[in-house]
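User: Can you help me understand a structure? I only have the sequence.
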Amino acid sequence: MADPEKKQSVEDLEAEVWNAIAAFEQILEAMPTDRVSLQTLSDAYERVGDHTRAKDYLMRLANVLLDENDVDGAGGLLGRLAKYKDEDLEAAELIARIEALGPATAEAGAASNKASKEDDAAERHAAVNITSELAFAWNLLQARELTQEEYSRVVEQLSDASTANLLSTVSVLHVLQDQDYVSLPQVIAFAGKECSTPVVSLSSFELRPEAVSLLPLDFVVRRGALVFEVMGAHCLVAVMNPYDQQLRQDVESTSGRPCHFYIASPSEFDAAVATIKELAENPMA
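Assistant: Let's start by predicting it. Here is the structure, written out as tokens:
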């Protein structure tokens, strides 16, 4: 007999992907050559099993990179395009155009393939994170917690932040904070209530090494989740996106413990991250 909770979790994950797909397709209507949208849509359609659309967006991305003469970026797509070359003439032509750019392209492709194999989990986490954040923004729009104009600004800033390749937390809540959004506390309360995820004040807790070290710092920052307390065998975890079911699974898998989730303000989350960095740099302090 199927586990109802597991089935619900799968359905939640699929809903997040479809929400993100809708959001990114809206971005492409305004910005047809947006790289992040093309890349994410290709990944997202691959996840839901629509390989035809995944291929179409991949080839659109390849054309954009070629038009912009991005040798490294285009070379990085060779591995993914290769699986289509025998069945799709356009894919074969794209591969030929990319390879014609010279040895640097082949080197970029080889480096990309190597990085993909060595750091596949990190890349998956990054892709899942931006997809989930777009889904979060979409949910707020549907609930009328954001206007269409506010939603568009959030999506644009998320897209820009996701391409910056900085070790920083990219989240809807951080974007709203950066925009001095006056209703941010209301959004946090709404999301927490809708996802049955209580709001927590991280400043009320003393962060201890044995708790915060259960998740790698890179994971904490990029995924927007940190362990702020340990109670017996259980972890108390603050997240920036309470809708992200994949994040919850990854937190429990990475920490190796059952977890209870809370939503925190982005300012308190950032202050907690700063404390975690200090603890890492001065373990004996």
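Now, to help you interpret it: The chain has 15 helices and three strands. The two ends are 52 Å apart (CA to CA). Let me know which part you'd like to focus on.
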